[in-house]
Amino acid sequence: MKTYLSLVKKEFHHILRDKRTMLILFGIPVALMLLFGFVITNEIKTIGIAVLDQSNDYTTNQIVDRLESSCYFVVKQRISNYGQLESVFKSGAAKLAIVFEQQFDYNLQRNRKANVQIIADASDANFANLSVSYATAVIRGYINDKNVQKSGMLQIVPEVRMAYNPELKGVYFFVPGIMALILMLISALMTSVSIVREKEYGSMDVLLVSPVRPVEILLGKVTPYILLSFINAFVIVVLGWSVFGLPVAGSLFLLFFECFLFISLALSLGILISTIADSQMVAMFVSAVGLMLPTILLSGFIFPIENMPLILQWFCNIMPPKYFIIILKHIMLMGNGLKEVWKETLILLSMNLFFILLAIKKFKIRR
Amino acid sequence: MERFQDIDKADSTVIWVKNMTKKFGKFVANDNLTFSVEKGEIFGFLGANGAGKTTAIRILCGLLSPTSGEAYVAGYDVYKQSEKIKQSIGYMSQKFSLYDDLNMMENIRFFGGIYGLDKKTIEQRTNELIEKFGMQDMQKKLIKDIPLGWKQKIAFSIAVLHKPKVVFLDEPTGGVDPITRRQFWDLINETAEMGITVFVTTHYMDEAEYCNRVSIMSEGKIIELGKPKDLKEKHQVNSIDELFFKVARNVNY
Q1: CB B102 to CB A5 under 8 A?
Q2: How far is CA A318 from CA A199, A353, B12, in A?
Q3: Which CATH number applies to A47-149?
Q4: From A201, A209, A212, residue closest to B91, measured CB to CB
Q5: Does ipTM surpass 0.90 in this model?
């Protein structure tokens, strides 16, 4: 116990005295939150649209008004035929075109069904996807209102529902992802680098020659990072809530329990990396490419897993961050409990056991 | 070489090695090493880079296990009792001596702590050290701001802080100026007089003259072993430096 405390104290000295480490520990989480929240937002605001209104009646005008008053869309151009569409998209003036069929109002009243076509410039697929959803949502809203007025008679053509995040607020998407990214960064990258640093300097030999057991060395090494990871998880939750107005719908206790699972998983991955890497550079590279990139790309953080090719989907299935992000979304956004996330929790738990045992075994072999 | 073959394992023997061999794949780093070191002795381990000194020291410290042969340190078997060995040895290398971003006191407390010394003992021995070296003004300085010579002296003192039976020094004076080296060897002598065995590897042949006995390694084998005086007489040379060139040249240099 005393040796363990000595090790922890020493590790804290290392961390607190290195400005770069401190910057990574506390600067990056805050910077990432603010960056994703304010700058790299995937929310849509004032997107330019082109309108091809072949009917130009009361209803179509109302729908266009509705689109504009939603704050998401600005009519940049009114065009008179499909031919002009190409040039509008190419000039970049509009990213979305709304096409009303002829006799729109008439069709709606008579046949209880009218067609509106939404054409998106899908060169930016994510953006197109989102803006189409927005537009459909607005049109649906309009028809809903009409239905209420006229006692349920008009048919709703588009059926899309943005559950749990009706406004498609970006912050709801990126907070779980950032949480996974930051915990991975601190727990895996920082830990592996700090263990490899001792190997590089030769101090690891001095530790291994001493009566301290390898397990104690590892525990002493990771304890400060567990603590710091928790502080960071807390900071992210508080920032999400105070700056971006994202409440945690579910149990905070469960949230931090799942964080702990993910942290210890990331730590064992970090230890594992430190056993194969011989220099800090290698450790950093392996952690970045092997852990950070998948956390960003293959976890559903930025790109939806459902849209990926099958092979990549299989890859995602072995990525711990995927499950962590699913769990976080359940707890933070939907307010679900363990009943809904037990499967993912179990997966994290078994990955945990596997990697912890592997890490301890590998670390011993080094001596 | 016959005289190495049957060495006694007396109570006063601290390191006892017989036919110890270490192979890395096909490369033989230590080839049939046989030697013993007595309590309170200063035993010098000489050899060019790659001669196998570091491998031998790492085996004796329990960082590596030998491929074959026998080896005992402080009475414990290196194969089975490495945990016991660790309690009885101190270790210091040129590569790493102290944590740069901790100050002197923190380094002492840390290493004292991992060797299981209690607070009172650590405080007491630290005060003795400070008194001895007159380093009152260095206590709170980070190690990176302390000159290398001082650093090595402090590191050595820390390596023997827990009063081990034997201390292994792997090129402890690398890069240190001649005056500090001299002081460092005074420290080593003091330690040996206290009954702590000193096992030291070095590049500096003048340092070999200070050892009670030296062994010269080349290509994984011990090619000479004995008191510096005896070895010089045997080969009719004036210094260990000359001796080293003479015997090393016989083996391919």
Answers
A1: no
A2: 30, 15, 58
A3: 3.40.1710.10
A4: A209
A5: no
Tens of pLDDT, residues A13-66: 999 998 888 888 888 888 888 887 776 655 566 788 889 888 888 888 888 888
User: Any idea where the domains of chain A sit in the sequence?
Assistant: 2-40+169-365, 47-149
Confirm whether pTM is higher than 0.80: no
Which residue is associated with the tokens 């299989």? A314
User: Which CATH number does the domain housing residue B207 bear?
Assistant: 3.40.50.300
pLDDT along chain B (253 residues), means of 10: 46 89 91 92 88 90 90 91 90 87 91 90 90 83 88 91 93 86 92 94 87 91 90 88 78 51
Our CA angle for A61, A65, A67, nearest 5°, is: 115
Give the C-alpha distances (Å, rounded to integers) separating A265 from A210, A261, A342.
28, 6, 17
CB contact under 8 A, A210 and B106: no
Structural domain of B189: 2-250
Q: Do B63 and A208 touch (CB under 8 A)?
A: yes
Type of residue at A154: L
What domain count does chain B have? Answer: 1
